[in-house]
Amino acid sequence: MKKYFVFIIIIVVIVLSLAISKLTAKKPLVETIVKTVSHEVVSLGSISVVQDFYGKIEGYNQTEIYPDVPGRFIKYTVEEGSYVKKNDVIAEIDRSVPGMSFETAKVLSPIDGLVYELNIMKGDAVAPSMPVAMVAENSKVVARVYISADLLSSVNRGIRAEINVDGNILSGYVDRKSAFVNNLTQMGSVDIVISGGSKYLNRSCTVKLFLTEKKNVKAIPFEALRTDSTGEYVFVYKDNSVKKTIVKTGLKNSLAVEITDGINTGDTIVTLGSDMIKDGQTVKLR
């Protein structure tokens, strides 16, 4: 019996020892991972929607030159890029036929300007319906682009443009556009008047049209904007943590978003890294 009680006491001591050791054991440290994110302070800026096009620089006023009579082309009397005045001779046409000789016909320029598109070769047959040259007034030139019907309606007179000619950036604005689109191509032309572009006449170019522009708006980087079932939101940083904040947006492009409501100028928002954090999380700013 005495041995039995001793055994019980030993068991109790062991159990108590184990319990005390668990109570006194140090709890393992839980490591908190703090994400490092990029940020930006909200301020007023500009945002625009831009579209790129390929075009050609032409005279604001220009005309194709047609011979008055049919015949064989003899020669041009000017070179491409030459400046001519109204009624200057552009080319000569041999209008002779077998058994009959005629005086050489002169092709005259109807306006003052620069001559280009001299594409007819000696001996080629020409007719009054065939243009032999182009003359353009070079005091005012345009970049002409062709735009699809669905986009043409959003192009308005006066909108800003940038024209790139061989790496040279020129400024311009939309001056005129087609009233109707071509039934076959479903495209319409748009003419952008260029500042200082006369020396680039008849050159190819690329045109950047600023279809919509807004100034003095809250524009944030596109990567800062997130979307889920609750709508569009950003993470606003304050006191080492972030708060998910629902926002209303306006104009957007591939780089920036206009914010119309939800945040204020001076707020700090998370940009790069916003896809790796959640509401209330502690973060470190890069």
Topology, pairings included?
Blueprint: H1 2-24, E1 35-37, E2 39-41, E3 44-59, E4 62-65, E5 71-76, E6 83-84, E7 89-94, E8 105-108, E9 113-116, E10 125-126, E11 133-136, E12 141-148, H2 149-152, E13 160-165, E14 168-177, E15 187-194, E16 204-221, E17 226-228, E18 231-238, E19 241-246, E20 248-252, E21 256-261, E22 268-270, E23 283-285
Parallel strand pairs: 1-23
Antiparallel strand pairs: 2-22, 3-12, 3-16, 4-11, 5-7, 5-10, 6-9, 7-8, 9-11, 12-15, 13-14, 13-16, 14-15, 16-21, 17-18, 18-19, 18-22, 20-21
Pfam family, one: YknX_C
InterPro entries: MdtA-like_BSH, YknX-like_C
Protein name: Efflux RND transporter periplasmic adaptor subunit
The counted number of beta strands is: 23
Structural class: mainly beta
What global shape is seen? rod-shaped
* Count of the domains: 3
Gap between N and C termini: 74 Å
Order of helices and strands: HEEEEEEEEEEEEHEEEEEEEEEEE
Q: What is the name of the CATH class of the largest domain?
A: Mainly Beta
